[in-house]
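3.2 Worked example (two chains)
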Amino acid sequence: MDIAQQRLLSQQINGERCQTPEEVVRWLGAIQAQEYQEALWAIGLRMRASTLAMVEHAIAEGKIVRTWPMRGTLHFVPAQDAKWMLELTATRMIAKDKRRQEQLELDEAIIERAAQLLHDALYGGKRLSRPGVMTLWEDAGISTRAQRGYHLLWYLAQTGLICLGPYEGKQQTFVLLDEWVPQPRKFSREEALNELVKRYVASHGPVTVHDFAWWTGLTISEARTGFHAVRSELRVEKHNGQEYWFSSDALSGEAHPFSEFYLLPGFDEYLLGYKDRSAVLATEHVQKVVPGNNGVFMPMLVVAGQIVGTWKRTLKKSELDILLKPFDQSSDLETEAREAINSYYDFRGLPRRLRHSPFPQQR
């Protein structure tokens, strides 16, 4: 079993790919999005032809939304699915949050007052930037210092009151989720779990039950329940003593042999979407992709399914500079990378520049 190659297909990185941003996000279920620009490319690279404007238009039109579902972390999700995904995944996050609320001296009365103030300010299709929300609360006597403001926003998004709306200038706005998505899909908890299992397996497979539990933030017990419920629609194979799950048609896609090199963004689902990442990233290179294990995932160079380096973009007013950093000093990836790099430049709509800087030799 070639786990890496199959995941390239499942994740729409190789193969037919999707046509629209909302199709990409619906297929993957959710796309990690704490780094906004990285997440835009995570969507764009999985489309047959994409531009930054196409993805931003889908956000502005409310077809995809950014909120905190899986593990209480920012993701893009299909707009109509945001509510049921939060209802499924947020319960555990909120229960674990009580201690943090106590540390920040956020009691129930403060949270309810902050929620009411924000609801009233946003009601009727209005939007507020993060600084605007902080000012609203401060003026009402609710301190937003020492992460209190951010935590209130996170909590109110977890409960489904708000989500992130479009950018206005350089500021991301907040909107009322029920107004921004007036006709959400509705599932029971059991239906929601089963739906998410099927989407995750189809879009990320081959996967383990532990991968799914990590990705969603649900318990292993809940994950097993979901896999058991839809097992007739899935396939399972053992590899190195581990059970890996696929969708029933997982091997029907055709890989594109000319697309062996990929320029993936930081925090991409190809790496971050699994508890066990060893199939695509060698242990000796982990620190180069996640320096100091600080939770920040660097943009990645992928060749034949394996992460072989990182890359950095420097975006200027009318120019984009890309620096390749392969792990192997002897690697000259510029020729192999040309197609992928050109796709990224085309996505951004900017002139092309490229530099090559291998990692220093480790002793």
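3.2.1 Second chain
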Amino acid sequence: MTRTAILVGITMNQANFDYSMEELANLAEANLIEPVGVITQKIDRTNKATYVGKGKVDEIKGLADYEDVDLVIFNDELSPSQIRNLEELLEIEVMDRTRLILDIFADRAKTREAQLQVQVARLKYELPRVVGQGEGMDQQSGKGGLKNRGAGETKLEMDRRRIKQQISQLNKELDGLVAERQVQRRQRQKNEIPIVSLVGYTNAGKSTIMNAMVSAHSTSTHKQVFEKDMLFATLETSVREIILPDKKQFLLTDTVGFVSKLPHHLVKAFRSTLEEAAMADVLIHVVDVSHEHFQAMMQTTEETLAEMDVIDIPVIYAFNKADMALNTMYPRREGDTLYMSAKEQEGLDILVQMITEHVFGDYEVVTLHVPFERGDVISYLNEHAEVLETSYEEEGTRIKVNAKQADRMKFNAFIEKETQIEDES
């Protein structure tokens, strides 16, 4: 059932404030809340008790009463006391941006790990607010005696302890899941398969790019990831193996999308998930180039990645949705930037070429002479390397391949030294 709300935002001359309010409306709609009014204010500092001044509180109440809305949503994170004071004055539910995003994440989380991460973030958000509500109850009761205060504090401490215990239990389960992923990650590193990670703003088209790549370079249609034109459609990290026609292969990961003012608790909760990006050989920063605020979205993504210590990794900029951008030619490459349309599958071949240039630089052409009794070597090379020539001689098979460094080291004993010298010269 759709609820209605008034949106409230204040600015201290911040850049992209209008877009931030537009995004708040999108977040509300993603949570099945219909915005029916917007109130903004330009101020020098916030009000400690009610975030906005008394006059603005009166204006909000007047509009909320007139529109008969269900709640008021603020575009920033409010303190427990501010929410309590505002609800008392407005006589209506008050929600801040952090709670709104947490609710969306809770609704979207599908895997056990994502659900645990969101639960931890929500409990950490609620912890100080449980205390605040308790203090408010004491104040509202009008009983300031030591007995009443002591009893109230005891209950608050019990509530706080219960939440902390829940957080601890959830973190233990999360640690187990993280350990599993670390084992998988170490195995991938041992196999020396390059990792390419899709990052970017929510709804930029990361999952669409992944599905297009899987469709083009994998026969398993069930490996498609969930994609939908909505905020935070993907909360899990998906990993798919991509095998190119020349047998080169890499792992493509799709991570949770970013948004401005992403709650700190959520960033911390999803740190383990986003470690996939930190381990990547190259990042594909997917940008919705058709959006008028795409540069602000890029900045938010880069700031969030920096906060997660995802730094010093080569980046390919995939300017997606170019089909919806005005006066934009596509597919078109400019250095490490590609204008493309994943939906129309325009530019995917160029993107693959750009990935290849970044992650397969250690490939070299070598010729091997393999005895007939080592048919396992020939089978391996036919499956994992680009075979350029094969001939059969008296003492074995002569095979010319474009192979990665790990395979050249593995089969170094079979490499014809003169061709190796010729290739390296």
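3.3 Remarks
The chain is about 50% helix and 20% strand.
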